[in-house]
Write a structure and sequence with these properties.
Helix content of chain B: over 70%
Structural class of chain A: alpha+beta
Number of helices of chain B: 8
CATH topology of one domain in chain A: Transferase(Phosphotransferase), domain 1
Number of helices of chain A: 34
Oligomer: heterodimer
Distance between the termini of chain B: 48 Å
Largest sheet of chain B: none
Largest sheet of chain A: 6 strands, antiparallel
Strand order of the largest sheet of chain A: 1-2-3-4-6-5
């Protein structure tokens, strides 16, 4: 490599302006004369120029301003702007498309109105990506999804037709032309009330659901990707940019961090925590659910859960931490925390008085949004449909799934609900689109595209399968909320899930209880068994309660083997995990007599129970203390410590808190212990006391047909002990010890 | 005299603390930084704001320096950005190559497949050679490639015409690329 000289630079500068190769050769021959080495060097430099350009910049050479759309500001004949990546002169033909008008500009691309001449003459939107991206891989990624994208057919989705590379390099996408306004802008301009906003939102959810069923994740749901256009005077939302986020991988991955970060102003605010994580490869449909949650949050409050500015200023690591850990304010709290003037303005945009707006949002809508925004995606709505259904339930004054149903809440809703026949049935019938069987990859002839296509196909198939499962869970959840258990039960056979899921667990629980209440123990035990596989997300309270249901179900079914396995599993599980309800595990594990080994293995849990009983007693929590005393009494009885069992039962009964099945159970333990000690008279009295409680109380309460049957399992527990006690008492008296 | 130049004068005379300059130049520095990043250089966990802050610390960290004018100042900032980017790229490349290799094993690199941080290192290596032979062009590269300055700003900083900057930049890119390729 020789030293660069002024002469060399001059020649290079002159020669590079000559476009005709012959002319260029002639020029160099004449200029260099006999200096062959010089001529050679300049020629080499000229050859290197194109590659060098690419090497240095990948996308464009000119420093550019970016970020905020500049409507109208671009048409000036500014030479510099023309060199911007993504900018093309009007009239240029790109592939089959002729650029007619620039209609928008965002952080990552410029959108043109373009005309397609063949095979059909139509107007389309053509988006040129201006981020520095490797065009080849963008297009390859797009090709891999093209088949699936083509399968999307939904009135609220703008179709994606085509992708390719412009002559100058950057990739472009061709979409259905949507002449509309950004979602949030439309809502504010037209002062849409909360109800109208929710109607639009439900339609958006349906569009996303449709895509998910085709195995397509949007990946970049935000207001600017939802346009509202008037069709026959009715506002119709259209989701645009499907497939583009995936193809351009516009995520905060390590690789494209620099190229995207600065330009994606506003977008991190819509990103799910898992998307914001480094190398967020494990993205599924539930990431879109999160973004829908952000969208809903914004529709209600005019703000995103986290301020985009704060996120950007926090820096990347801190931003990730915020998205991962910080709990955003509920929409209603967020509104309340606004300065008065801002709240008034926000309310005006929603045609509501400030106080009214806060109260509209508080409650159902708070819960719905927060459920969609769960950090742990397993706690979110399973499907976009599930989210939409909950919003619809709210609109219909029906109980929403986002809140654990309490009796007062449900009846409140019942009273308020119009007696209109709920059309939700129609939603249930909403056809499940079967996955398409054709192998996508057959369409790809290029060898190198094949592995990618196969991977995409597998991923889409996986997503479709998951989407189907989630859809079924959503449907079953809806049926349960409508108290149509039989239909819900029918669906459960098709739901093959092993992973923990909150919504799924709730369905299995409700259906299991429905079977239990009707005495169908086999079905109940089966549902509960599957519930215990997927209920890990529900917390120790729900998990141990689920155990309290499965135990009696198995005993009533008469399956001693299954019960034995169940209790061993349960003891194993809670002997290692700390559990705030050790008494429940103890109690359910000694419902039937147990061998010495099993009883011994309960020692640590028994000790915890004794301690927590003392604590509860000290804290005046007589309810908890009484249950714990009962558990220990039964355990002592199983251990053969009858005197201890009697003492604990009496302690249980002494607490000033009456719970019929527990009191009955305590009497039964007393009866059995007395009997074992030969105190037959006392035993009979206790037994009769228990019988009385049963006769007055145990009646199946099916009047409401709801799954919330109170504590049926406590009654069944007591009934099982009643059988044991009765058999013991009816035995010929043993000689007193 | 621009406000920045004026404040720079006051700083060098000790009349003002350097922090007072930051608000004046922050936006501009940040624009350079994000332009620098937008153009390429993926793969580093830096962001424009962080780059600006680090560059700021470097520029004022070694104290005692004086700045004649705005162009001079941005030149120093560009140099600081270059050093930061190189350090980050080195540590990244080190991590990637097993912890003990500071320099890249160029033999094993296919030019088309170099990662952005490898690219930064390759360019910087070649730039050292250019620096020895033609400091003015090397300076243009630092300002353009690492500093993210516009041609006008480079011209102001180096004290040449915009046209010369364009010529230098075009020539230097081809020259550097040639040099990098010749290494392989």
């Amino acid at each position: 490599m020789s030293s660069p000289t002024q002469r060399e630079e001059d020649l290079f500068d002159e020669a590079r302006k000559l476009t005709d190769p012959d002319e260029c050769r002639t020029f160099l021959e004449r200029a260099c004369g006999g200096d062959v080495a010089l001529r050679r060097r300049v020629e080499d430099l000229l050859t290197a120029e194109l590659d060098a350009e690419q090497f240095f910049t990948e996308s464009g050479t000119v420093v550019h301003e970016h970020g905020i759309p500049l409507p109208g500001a671009s048409i000036g004949a500014d030479d510099r702007r023309r060199n911007l990546p993504g900018e093309e002169p009007l009239g240029t033909k790109i592939g089959r498309y002729k650029l007619l008008e620039k209609i928008g500009e965002g952080g990552c691309g410029v959108v043109y109105l373009a005309e397609q001449e063949e095979p059909v003459r139509r107007r389309v939107a053509l988006k040129i990506i201006k981020l520095g991206m490797e065009t080849k891989s963008v297009i390859a990624r797009f090709e891999a999804e093209r088949q699936a994208l083509a399968m999307m057919d939904h009135p609220n989705i703008a179709r994606v037709f085509d992708a390719g590379a412009t002559d100058r390099g950057p990739p472009y996408f061709v979409m259905e032309l949507v002449r509309g306004v950004k979602l949030t802008t439309y809502c504010d301009q037209h002062r849409l009330g909360i109800g109208q906003r929710l109607d639009l939102f439900v339609q958006i959810c349906h569009a996303i659901q449709h895509a998910h069923q085709k195995g397509i994740i949007h990946g970049d749901i935000k207001p600017s990707n939802v346009m509202v256009a008037l069709q026959d005077g009715v506002p119709v939302p259209k989701v645009i940019d499907f497939g583009i986020s995936k193809a351009t991988e516009a995520r905060l991955t390590d690789k494209n961090l620099f190229t995207t970060y600065a330009q994606l102003i506003g977008t991190p605010a819509y990103m799910s925590p898992e998307q914001a994580e480094m190398g967020g490869v494990d993205i599924d449909t539930r990431s879109d659910i999160y973004s829908l949650g952000v969208l809903l949050y914004e529709l209600l409050t005019g703000r995103t859960p986290f301020e985009p500015k704060a996120l950007l200023e926090a820096g990347l690591d801190e931003m990730r931490r915020m998205l991962r850990e910080r709990e955003p304010a509920r929409p209603s709290s967020r509104l309340q925390a606004l300065p008065a003037a801002e709240l008034t303005k926000t309310a005006e945009f929603r045609e509501a008085e400030p106080d009214r707006l806060v109260s509209l949002v508080r409650g159902d809508l708070d819960w719905i949004v927060m459920k969609a925004l769960e950090k742990d995606r397993r706690r979110r709505y399973e499907t976009a449909n599930g989210l939409a259904l909950d919003v619809q339930r709210h609109l219909n004054n029906e109980p929403v799934a986002a809140r654990p149903p309490s009796w007062t809440y449900r009846t409140q809703k019942l009273v308020r609900r119009n007696r209109v026949v709920v059309t939700a049935g129609a939603a249930v019938v909403a056809a499940l689109v079967a996955g398409f069987g054709t192998s996508t990859w057959l369409f790809f002839k290029e060898r190198e595209a094949r592995p990618r296509a196969v991977a995409a196909e597998q991923q889409q198939a996986g997503l479709r399968h998951e989407a189907e499962m989630r859809e079924k869970i959503t449907q079953a959840a809806l049926l349960v909320s409508l108290e149509r258990f039989e239909e819900a039960d029918g669906l459960l056979n098709e739901i093959l899930i092993k992973k923990p899921t909150v919504e799924g667990a709730a369905v299995f629980r409700a259906v299991g209880e429905w079977h239990a209440i009707h005495g169908r123990w086999k079905a109940a035990a089966d549902r509960f068994a599957r519930l215990l596989q997927i209920n890990q997300l529900d917390g120790a309270d729900a998990c141990t309660l689920d155990g309290l249901k499965q135990g009696p179900a198995l005993v009533e079914l008469g399956d001693a083997v299954a019960y034995e396995r169940f209790r061993q599993d349960l003891i194993g599980r809670f002997n290692v995990t700390p559990c705030p309800f050790p008494d429940r595990v103890v109690k359910i594990s000694v419902l039937l007599p147990a061998d010495e080994k099993t009883v011994a293995s309960l020692a640590p849990l028994a000790e915890l129970t004794a301690r927590s009983m003392a604590e509860a007693e000290g804290a005046g929590e007589v309810f908890q203390a009484a249950w714990r005393a009962m558990s220990l009494a039964l355990l002592e009885y199983r251990r053969g410590n009858f005197a201890k069992a009697i003492e604990l039962s009496q302690r249980c009964l002494a607490f000033p808190e009456y719970n019929a099945p527990r009191v009955a159970t305590a009497h039964l333990i007393l009866a059995m212990a007395d009997r074992q000690l030969g105190r037959n008279h006392e035993a009979l009295a206790e037994w009769n006391g228990a019988r009385e409680i049963f006769e007055s109380k145990i009646k199946p309460r099916e009047d409401r047909g709801t799954p919330m049957q109170g504590f049926w399992f406590d009654w069944i527990f007591a009934r099982i002990l009643l059988r044991e006690a009765t058999a013991l008492i009816e035995q010929p008296p043993a000689p007193a010890r | 005299m621009s406000e920045i130049t004026q404040v720079l004068g006051e700083i060098s005379r000790g009349d003002k603390a350097s922090e007072e300059l930051l608000p004046l130049v922050y936006d501009e520095l940040r624009r350079h930084a994000s332009a620098r990043m937008a153009r390429e250089a993926a793969g580093q966990t830096l962001q424009p704001t962080a780059l600006v802050h680090e560059a700021w610390l470097r520029v004022f960290g070694d104290g005692g320096r004086t700045w004649e004018n705005r162009g001079h100042f941005f030149g120093a900032a560009a140099e600081a950005m270059r050093r930061i980017l190189i350090e980050k790229a080195r540590s990244k490349a080190r991590l990637k190559h097993g912890g003990n290799q500071v320099r890249l094993d160029i033999e094993q690199l296919e030019l088309a497949e170099t990662t952005p941080e490898e690219k930064v290192l390759l360019i910087d290596d070649a730039l050292e050679k250019l620096q020895q032979q033609d400091p003015e062009k090397a300076r243009v590269v630092v300002l353009k490639f690492f500093g993210g300055l516009t041609n006008e700003q480079v011209a102001e900083s180096v004290g040449v015409t915009v046209r010369t900057v364009e010529r230098h930049w075009a020539y230097a890119k081809a020259w550097l690329f040639q040099s990098i390729r010749a290494q392989q």
